[in-house]
Amino acid sequence: MAGVVVLLILAAVVVVVVVAVMYPERKGTPGTGSSHWKGKGTTPYLQEIILGRCYTYITTVNPELSGKNCHQIWDLLLTAFIHKHPCSMREEDYQPLMDLGSQSIPCDKTLFWSKTNNLVHRYTKANHDFLTLEDTLLGYIADGVSWCGSSRIDYNSCPKWNECENNPGSIYWKMVSKMFADSACGTVQVMLNGSIENGAFRNDSIFGSIEILHLNPDKVSTVEVWLMHDIEGTQSESCAGPSIKMLKSILENRNISITCKENHRPVQLLQCASNPDHATCRLCPYVTQ
Q1: Catalytic one of 107, 164, 272, 281
Q2: Per residue in 124-155, pLDDT tens?
Q3: 185 is catalytic
């Protein structure tokens, strides 16, 4: 009889372990794992968000990708980070997901950005002639959400990028940024912020440290800089400024030419929608009343 009881206890333990492995926590309840990180934890209802965005993307945003398997995309994302220390992620962990979610970008349609998040995405929503990373499938499903976990999904906290280099978010975005840059061809655009004090171009940004280094000079002929200034803000840098000169040097050393426009008018008109009475927004801006 004692032997039967022992076997029943062991069987119960096995069932509990299997269920914990196959069905990690999905809702916004605290997980076990690390809770001492400084970043926000896994986004509640992450699975539902990823699946919902994926189906929205392949059915309405880009129906040409209707053959993508959204449930497999979620499974590969979960497999990539679950049961791994959140500071020990590797590119190999995400590679199956990168392969499944890859897509081609038409030539002359790639739009990079740095420190212009809100403005650049307002522009691509209004003008579908250009695509940012967040307008691709893998960028769209992951924009603004976070994830990590070791024994379980951790809803309490995840590492910030400056806490450890190989965290789930940084590895993911670096990989999709590389893939986005690798796919670029023809003339590519980049929207930079000319109103920040530390320079419009920074070589430690994702654009400066990853994307420009993965542009293929055999496919990309020109980088066109759109240097935007805040209508009500300062104009800290022009196309002749030091950080733009540094960007020019990097690109020309890679045999890629560069042009620069200050306050690209189609983008500036979006800024004017929020401040239509500003002098910059007049049809004849230099006419005074």
Answers
A1: 107
A2: 999 889 999 999 999 999 999 999 998 899 99
A3: yes
